[in-house]
Amino acid sequence: LTSLFKAAQDVRATFPSPQFRLFPVIFLRDDIYDFIRDPDKNKWEDFKVALEWNKSKIQDLLAFRISRALNPTCEPLPYAQAWHLIMHDAPIHLRGSDASMPKFDYIARSTHLRLRDFIRFLQVCCEEELRTGNPKIGVETIKKADMAFSNYLRNEIIDEVFAIIPEIDKVLDIFSQIRKQTLPQELFKQMYKQRAAEENFQMKDPDFVLRILFHFSVIGNQPRQHNTMVYHYLNRDARLNKSEKIVVHRGLFKSLGIV
User: Fold this and answer.
1) Interval 190-202: pLDDT, tens
2) Secondary structure class of 246 (helix, strand, coil)
């Protein structure tokens, strides 16, 4: 990968502007970029553009996808109009509470705020509604889709982390064994060491494993001062705080058997 960056620099230097107007661009996932180590990496920062998702951008792109699905040649509809075409208006009432939440926000809680996460969640919902013949996605369908999406998110994480932690599937099973959303780091480390010894894991260091899990937003921190959880996908500068409890991402609850 470092050679790829240097090759892009060489191509740019070999074909200078304005004679050639050739501008090589590298697209790379930020989690991969973060693990690159090279003496020239700081120099690349001047040329780096971070593509970050937020609620507004995701809604605009969902509106575009919905509009194109309805009519490949039409002008994209406004988000509110496009969303209404596939969703019932009723909000989702939260279990064990009188509070309710808009459907978009309810879905967002299970994602890493990536467009592909929302697309997958909506695909699962649409497949269910097509089977039952309903014209729009309802509340119960969204709740039911949580399981299929949770399995998707788990598989995504396994694919992304496998190269760093070969036993990532068994690491996730540790959370299934504990069955808690929030837990002390020492509890995880104790169970990890036991499992690593029994099954001869390649990765022996539980502290390193926790850092990687935090980096990929499998877990976040639960600060003592307030109820807002800290996840890397919400704050790219966040680092694992060893003095705080860890909290499993909500999107993994169903696949890990966490109630």
Assistant:
1) 999 999 999 999 8
2) strand
